[in-house]
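Standup notes
- HV: blocked on the assembly model, inputs below
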Amino acid sequence: MRRWLEGLRELRQYPSAIGGMALIAFLIALSVYTVIAIPYNQALDLWRGGEEWRMHPINAGPVWADRLTGGNKPETVLVSSADADVREAGFEGGRQVRIPLAFNYDYGDFPSEINLFLKTEDTDREAFVRLSWQTPDGETIPLGGRRIAQEDRVSISQNRALEARLGVSPHIGLFADALDGDDPSPQAGRYQLMVDAILYGEEASLDADLAVYGRVHGIAGTDHQRRDIMVALLWGTPVALAFGLLAAVGTTVTTLVIAATGVWFGGLVDATIQRLTEVNIILPLLPILVMVGTLYSTSIWLMLGVVIALGIFSAGIKMYRAMLLPIRQAPYIEAARAYGASNSRIIMRYMIPRILPVLIPTFVTLIPTYVFLEASLAVLGLGDPILPTWGKVLNDAQVQSALYNGFYYWVVSPALLLMLTGLGFAMLGFALDRVFNPRLRTQ
Amino acid sequence: MSAVRSSAQARGRDGPLLAVQDLHTWFELRQWGFLRVGSVRAVDGVDFELARGEAVAFVGESGCGKSSLARTLLGLHKPTRGEVVFNGTRVADLRGKDMQWYRASVGYVQQDPYGALPPFMDVRRILSEPLIVHGISSRVERERRIRQVLDEVRLSPAETILDKFPHMLSGGQQQRVVIARALVLEPSMIIADEPVSMLDASVRVEILNLLRRIQTERELTLAFITHDLSTVRHFADRIFVMYAGRIVEQAPVDELLAHPQHPYTQSLLAAIADVDAANARQQREVPGGEPPSLLHPPPGCRFHPRCPHAIAGVCEVDDPPQFEPRRGHRSACWLHR
């Protein structure tokens, strides 16, 4: 124990160790925060996509990136009838409702989409709404009328008739100051969407929610399914760390115990282990994982199991064997045999502890290897089907041609987190190597 | 008392503690892992008996098989042929608990004290290990016995030692810990394989005196293995001289040192340096040649190629039996015919 504490104390002299530990601490803190803030089931629900995300824009970039580059791209503007000055009038068998949905718009670019969500309650039959758009300069553009279902979505930006009338997409046309130029710019000021509805039923009511989708969103932006990429970036952290740690622990511990067993018993046991290792070393890990993923399941835990199973007889056995062979001959092991220590006790208590210090740096640098492996699998389309991970974000980005479309943030942010993970563990691992592996000491 | 009680312990209260009959320990040499190409005859036909409370020394040059003999007695090597009988029980027949009892009954003190102690364990842990292995699960009991044995090897106060790691101790202290570990199971016999050869001259006598005192106090049987005849006189009752895997001469210590019978013993004794200024100008007679190959030992007496008194036609033909040229003094040499 004392030796370990001394080693840890010595670590403080290495700036790379401090940096590495800071990075790892950051990732661990992020994981803890994520798991508490977004519980597992909620994360899975969110990542499944759907209605949860209807108020989010599609393929929006991060706000801070736009602002840092001096841009003024719109964020999503949401206006609800609950905050509006609703006027109502009754008539025989129904009510007439007038909802002004007003908002200020002061951005340097057009919104990406406009949707109006309508929800009626207690109606005897389908309600009828008529919409009109008022621009800051007082112009009123009628958007037409239609019957609506109980819960309905009016896609203003996909109104073909309106598009034909305006000559451009509605979400541009409704905000443009002048339509004569080739390069229209948005008009700043107060806009208003007037919703005039006829509701049939004495107690009928109408809720209206206007979403003027922006072009930037949050810290990480959104993907093609309106999902906030932040959810995957956050949840990818504990998943990546857990996968890397479990795979590293699983392979290191089993490999070490098997190597020590072979060295201790020697003879046929050792020969069998060595031959199995040699066969296993030439088995290609990635294609086998691809095959398992294709034929069976891409569950991350199955992949973890296969990685560990194939890692048991890995090349590490050769290295550990070389380290353990001289220890087998140590007089203290002979003494232990003389007082009757069992084989398992000698392996676990006398041989393995001797090489553990040398092993720790290897172990630490092994963790990101498995994190990268998981990401590679996900990029190949063999990511876990339900869990949000960094690799799956990259996979989505690749499938959606993110870089071709200019959605650089979609690729950069998960890649950056992967690199930070690798960097953190590598920096700590190299420093640990210097502390625990005396041959590498410079002085 | 040992924690492991067994039926084997009850038997053979009288008679020798340890009897070795026709013991052979051969190491097979194999090529490609399976082809037998010969055997190294490390121990090749050894007979002796050790009484309770007796201290004996096995003496011989490097490679004469004395360490292999020690390891065979400890059960670390399986004898190729012959018997080790401990307390009336054949060691080869011991299984399970009985074997653990035998292991507890025979303590082992090694040559290199630093190598003999696991570098990653502190002294408390090192001394606890044999007790844990032998089923003493009570921490209090272990602590009591550890302190007792540390006191016995004069490592006190225990507090200053218990939490130290081997590299923090001096060579002498390390060897005391090794002795304490050999004693902690309260054995009836100690096998010490060159216990002082790696220590500073100043510490040697201390450690040898310690071993001798503990041996007397506990009435232990002590088998002391050394290549150095000069240290033997004060620490052994009997001496066995080994050559090429065999015992060539055995006698009480004073008798043997005063009247060596075997030519090999005579040359060994002649090689001991006396602290005397006159020796600086004097050429000593030492046994010429090399120790014989244990893979292909010479026929007849194994010492004959180096023996100044070899009798042509006898020594290179037949193995000499044990003669008894003087009372209680045996020597395997045709000269006593």
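- HV (later): unblocked. Chain A is about 55% helix and 15% strand. The CA atoms of residues 270 and 329 of chain A lie 16 Å apart.
- Next: hand off to the docking folks.
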